[in-house]
Amino acid sequence: MKARHESYDYLIIGCGLTGATLAERIANVLDASVLVIDRRDHIGGLCYDELDDHGILAGKYGAHIFHTASDRVWKYVSHFTAFNAYIHRVDAYHDGHFYAMPLGLDAINSFFGSRLNEEQLPAFLEQLSEHIPHPRNAEEVMVSTVGWELYEAFFQNYIRKMWATDPRDLDPAAVMHVPPVRLTGYTPYFLDPWQGVPLEGYTTMFERMLDHKNIRICLNTDYRQAASAVAWRYLVFTGSIDAYFDHVFGRLPYRSVDFRFETKACDRMQHRGVLMYPNDHEYMRSAEFKWIYQQQHEKTTICRYVPVWNDDEPCYPVPCPANRALYLKYKDRGDGLRNTYFCGRLGTYADLTMGESVAHALALFERRIAPDARAGLARVTMSVPYTLE
User: Fold this and answer.
1) Number of domains, the chain
2) Of 157, 226, 244, 342, which has the fewest Cβ atoms less than 10 A away?
């Protein structure tokens, strides 16, 4: 970037979902100038997708399904894209068979060779489960819900693969996003009323969010380089909060994924969009993009997820007490900075879903950024192009 003679109201570090949402709100509602920078060579963060060499729309960092229970969040993202009707269904492989996840009536009957009905299932699970009134870790959450046999068959090794940590050393939050069992035979992975994938892909959605005269984007740019090269009044930081402070208290661990792609000349390679492999293979799951994007093509591409440690590509905060305590040290230091906002899954060290990321960004804008702007910016028009109520 050039020497320090450009000036912006806001400098946003990171062009993922949180950064793009805040850039859009700041530019449209506050009529303020925004510089968004990202170290990658593309917008969209981990949601970035593109046509692969075979013409199949695929996510560079795996498959992503947007889902939310918030009408407000769904209304917001729907300003920038229409969504397909994909309903996410996932199967897990165990001992030569696939079972629908979360485990429902049919899967449990198949696993145990039983003939339970919906009325009998709760009592059956009560017999299986351990009575732990206040689960203290991820393992206790699981065994208090499904018991040891189902836990060891479907969850124990999957959690170990994902986090490279024993489930007994992880917070309950590590397994709280989706329940392990449902008491009916209806088992889509998410029960949120709003879910799907952008019809033209996530990258097109991001392009529309960022299409504003007040927004400038710089890619392939390190945030320290940008912060020293331009003048700015407010900083929005969506990167790793420990990196911002040069790891002064030590590194916060983030789990990463090695995404491995394969394309074959056939209609489908899988019977579901996503398959989980808790006990087999080094990869923990595989996703087939034609299912998820609902494409028609003579070939198909799948992506296999191999969890790894990679400090250069932090993805998932590791939820355990020691890491939480370390994060709070960084948060306390960040709270002492003026005109600086830490947000997103890396900035808050929280494993947010896509819907939660948008919700948190909108809340941050309305509760802190917009009020601060009213008090501190000379030029604030607060012109709202559309309402979110």
Assistant:
1) 2
2) 157
